Amino acid sequence: MPSISNKGQAMPESPIRKLVPYAEAAVKKGRKIYQLNIGQPDIKTPEKALDAVKHNNIEVLSYSHSAGFESYRNKLSKYYQNHNIDVSPDELIITTGGSEALLFTMGSICDAGDEVIIPEPFYANYNGFATSSGVKVVPVKSKIEDGFALPPISEFEKLITSKTKAILICNPGNPTGYLYTKEEIDQLAEIVKRHDLFIVADEVYREFAYDGAKHYSIMSVPGIEQNAIMIDSVSKRYSMCGARIGCLASKNKEVMATAMKFAQARLSPPTFAQIASEAALETTQEYFDEVIEEYTSRRNLLVEGLEKIDGVKVAKPKGAFYCIAELPVKDAEDFAKWLLESFELDNETVMVAPAAGFYSTPNTGLNQVRIAYVLKKENLLRAIEILKAALKEYKG
Ligand SMILES: Cc1ncc(COP(=O)(O)O)c(C=O)c1O
Predict the structure, then answer these.
(1) Which of 16, 96, 123, when mutated, tests ligand 1's pocket best, judged by the most ligand atoms within 8 Å of its CB?
(2) 189 close to ligand 1 (CB < 6 Angstrom)
(3) Which of 37, 66, 213, 220 could form a disulfide with 263 if both were Cys (CB 3.0 to 4.6 A apart)?
(4) What sign does the dihedral 336-337-338-339 (CA atoms) show?
(5) Does the beta carbon of 239 sit less than 6 angstroms from any atom of ligand 1?
(6) What stretch of H or E contains 260?
(7) What is the mean pLDDT of residues 188-194?
């Protein structure tokens, strides 16, 4: 039989999706599952975005410009100006989700064997994008005890080699929920400038900042215009994960010209979804105010509920809609499988994402899970109740 590539074999499984077969088997048994494992918001997509597609009389569903519709990039640039991010339409490439923006970025700035330093735990698919680009992820550990704040800059400094091309951060963080302060972003800016590195900031959760905290974008830092690359997406902002629209932004012309070659090779981002995303830019602040209020109360309820369970430790998230919880178990993956295979409370159970897959240091985060608070409050309460009962019964 013809053989599979080494790269293909090295591609990691998604820790978020790998328990799906267990969940499917549980559903077949008639079990109800509260899904805390995946960042699929239950928030309604803005009607304006849906209407723009529904009431469209396009006759030929054609390709668009490889960088995306000009009209969309013009409006998107204004959205960024309103967020104190100065990017012009030609400093933006519309991509098929933030995922493609990450792939284009790695392809544009790294050769095989190059290194990217990433605070861990991090969004697990960074491992996948790095593997498919031949890039080595170099983790720098952030700790639950510090709420997953930025590790000391001296820790980054120790990891920089002649192969290091970039530092990649996620702000606010998936899976940590940590929101970097202006001081932390400034420290990162200083180190990338000093070592002549790129700083890639995944800001797909920009709007989700709680308790009055303000998101500080990498693109707002003066003096690192040639180093900074921003990744963005409509997936979470407008609850439009299925649209598959994101973007890549940088003031570095060489980066943009290179990324554009990747963009041309895949022709264009999806047309209907760009129409929806352009219309979504008209979403009012009230929509976000309501969404933020909802997530804040879900977060409070979740954190309070988890803290009441014996042996559970949690870092209170300041943004996004995830948290990492440390559980009184040895092997959170085994526990997560057991929840789906062997446990039920009145025929209901919960699904969580084992956190080890969000670390690239082996044998780390083994007793942690990632919980996404994307369920309505009553369901979240029930899920916590189930988790508490399960932890009492589990003999792991
Ligand atoms: C941190 C982060 N970056 C990027 C993505 C990719 O998003 P998409 O490709 O849907 O824009 C996600 C999706 O969950 C994410 O959590």
Answers:
(1) 123
(2) no
(3) 66
(4) positive
(5) no
(6) helix 253-265
(7) 98
Pick from 67, 126, 64, 391: nearest CA to 249: 67
pLDDT in tens, 220-244: 999 999 999 999 999 999 999 999 9
Greater pLDDT, 218 or 42: 218
Q: Is 211 helix (H, G, I), strand (E, B) or coil?
A: coil
Average pLDDT over residues 326-355: 96
Question: 236 CA distance to ligand 1 centroid (A)?
Answer: 8
- Using the 8-state DSSP alphabet, how is residue 113 labeled? T
Q: Give yes or no for residue 210 CB within 6 A of ligand 1.
A: no
Please, which contacts does 304-309 make with residues 24 or more away whose CB atoms are closer than 8 Å? 305/380, 305/381, 305/384, 306/371, 306/384, 306/387, 308/388, 309/384, 309/387, 309/388, 309/391
pLDDT at 18: 80
268 lines ligand 1 (CB under 6 A): no
As a whole number, mean pLDDT of residues 1-29 equals 91
Contact 275, 294 (CB under 8 A): no
Residue 41 has pLDDT above 90, yes or no: no
Dihedrals φ, ψ of 330, to 5°? Answer: -85, -40
Q: Strand 198-202 vs strand 228-233: parallel, antiparallel, or unpaired?
A: parallel
Give the whole-angstrom CA distance, residue 305 versus residue 371.
13
